[in-house]
Amino acid sequence: MATVVPPPSKRVKRERAEIARQQQDVDSTIPDGTVRVRFVDQATGESGNIPVLTVPLSQASTKNLEILLNELKEQGDDRIPYRFFPDGATEALGDREDLYHALVKPGKVSAESEVVLQYAPQAVFRVKAVSRCAAAISGHGDNILAVQFSPLDSSRMASGSGDKTVRIWDCDTGTPAYTMKGHSRWVLAVSYSPDGAVLASGGYDNEVRIWDPTTGKQIGSPLKGHTNFITSLCWEPYHLQEEGRPRVASSSKDSTVRVWDAVGGRIDFALSGHKGSVTCVKWGGTGLIYTSSHDKTIKVWNASTGTLLHTLSGHAHWVNHLALSTDFVLRTSYHDHTRKVPASPEEKLAKAKSRFEKAATINGEIVERLATASEDCTLFLWTPLSSTKPVTRMTGHQKQINQVCFSPDGALLASAAWDNHVKLWSARDGKFLFTLRAHVGPVYMASFSADSRLLASCSKDTTLKVWDMRTGKLKEDLPGHKDQVFALDWSPDGERVGSGGADKQVRIWRN
């Protein structure tokens, strides 16, 4: 009878786990030798005061390089996870890769030469890919055209439909919470205020309505003034609001944008200057309003005076959509992954402001980047605070582009188009990274997870797809809808994805 080795004791297991956590085991297949590594910040392209280091090949794993970089940046106590991009590569090194097997052995670099590693911080928390439909909720009587989660958490989601109603869903139980009636035609846009206290909706009846999402009751009378249907809604950033006076901007096919006092129920001012339908409005964290239009231009307005500052031109056809690099922090204001809500209004304001400034600061300056998507199959990247000339023009899509969005960390840009593809770009310089191919119909929307590691997309082909941002590969295929999927949102806390479309069902997806 063979002798059975006794299982390791708890103490041995604990010691082994601690060694594995601190440092990956040395791979015995890696030869002796060293490699010179230069760390370069991907955002600035500079090394700063980090020296060029000689690292043993056997120790040059991604995890060990991360520990090393944190020590060099004197943040060993509060470690930040990093992604490493070998110079010129679009794909980051995998979590379990090392420099020998990834670069030296395939002959991409020699052990004698200097390896330049661009590093980019990742979110401290990790969002799991949604993989199953947790609820398919019926209730709407027509196409679902807009969905949005509350910034508070993923337990509440609003949807707007062709059945003239706005509904709020309880995502914990998969049941309808409120049905809000009042619109006389299709509801095309719904938008939660950054603190989650009020909800705005607009649609084909030319009116904007303000609702209390906790009771399902309408606040005040409808906001009338537009002479054609509402195309999009955007709230004033929380850190810019006057206390008790949140404002919302609505864009319309009547070529104007109107800014409303949501609680007072009055118009503040109208922005007129576009010569065609205004397709999208975004309210930036520096007090500027950005609008895109069928007149091929993007206009930048001062939100306090209502005056036109710049007209950005370059597109050869209608501009369909806008995205700001700070969209995620402006949408969530003082709500972050810690789920700790500040106690006083002053603390809420300070937290919302500091989150915006942290997200927008590059090299000590506030930089709010703007991406625009057009029917001319191209995207432009702008920095409107410093220049009216585009940073770059991004080409590659074969058909018109529906939507564009920045990742929450401001590093990536995704564009969804009628050519069945989602394309991924670097948000810093507009460099093309990946084409995400799997949809067999036009892609209507894409939405990033809160940690920027995943992207969900919805399409005319009735499916949702979840993609891995490090490799550009398909992570999850989510069939279930019985008709095309128009609307999609990934909750700010990363827990759920909500979708809706022509099958009149809201679906909630979880991991």
UniProtKB/TrEMBL annotation:
It comes from the Eukaryota. One of its GO terms (cellular component) is nucleolus. One of its GO terms (biological process) is ribosomal large subunit assembly. WD repeats lie at residues 137-179, 180-221, 223-261, 271-311, 394-435, 436-477, 478-511. SMART domains: WD40. Its main location: nucleus. This is Ribosome assembly protein 4. PANTHER family: NOTCHLESS PROTEIN HOMOLOG 1 (PTHR19848:SF0), WD40 REPEAT PROTEIN (PTHR19848). Belongs to the NLE1/RSA4 family. Keywords: Nucleus, Repeat, WD repeat. InterPro entries: WD40/YVTN_repeat-like_dom_sf, WD40_PAC1, WD40_repeat_CS, WD40_repeat_dom_sf, WD40_rpt. It is found in: Nucleus, Nucleolus.
